[in-house]
Design a protein that fits this description.
Blueprint lengths: L3 H13 L4 E2 L7 H10 L2 E5 L24 H15 L5 E5 L8 H13 L5 E2 L13
Parallel strand pairs: 1-2, 2-3, 3-4
Helix pairs in contact: 1-2, 3-4
């Protein structure tokens, strides 16, 4: 996001074109969500988790998402996303992050998020048919 005024102008232009849901690939500043609340654009918020070189290797250590020593880092990032966005009416779902593979850390992140968020779905595109996503 650039600055408040430019971002609001861009979001209003997207809304005028019929785009009513945004899914940023990385966390946004708090004011971004305020704008979306005001303008009436839905948001699928995204945790700051991405490992572009990840693979579908589910072995321990096969991806950063399956390195148990990193679980606290994953949980901190998902918790930060949730606490930043939980009270914004524009938030319709939470995403566990970008392409980071799947494994123990993502399972724990999903479990934590579902324990505090009872209404909105949790999405993880890299779940690839596993249980840690509400939307396939």
């Amino acid at each position: 996001a650039k600055d408040v005024a430019t971002t609001e102008k861009e979001i209003r232009a997207l809304k005028a074109k019929g785009i009513n849901c945004l899914c940023p690939e990385y966390p946004q500043p708090r004011w971004y969500y305020d704008i979306c609340d005001r303008v009436g654009v839905y948001v699928i918020d995204c945790a700051a988790l991405s490992a572009p070189s990840s693979s579908d290797n589910r072995a321990v250590g096969g991806t950063p998402s399956n390195v148990p020593e990193l679980v606290d880092v994953y949980l901190q990032r998902v918790e930060a996303m949730y606490h930043r966005a939980q009270n914004h009416v524009s938030i319709i779902a939470f995403s566990l992050g970008g392409d980071a593979g799947n494994g123990y850390n993502m399972y724990k992140a999903y479990e934590w998020l579902k324990s505090v968020e009872k209404q909105r779905p949790v999405i993880y595109e890299s779940a690839e048919g596993e249980w840690n996503t509400d939307v396939e």
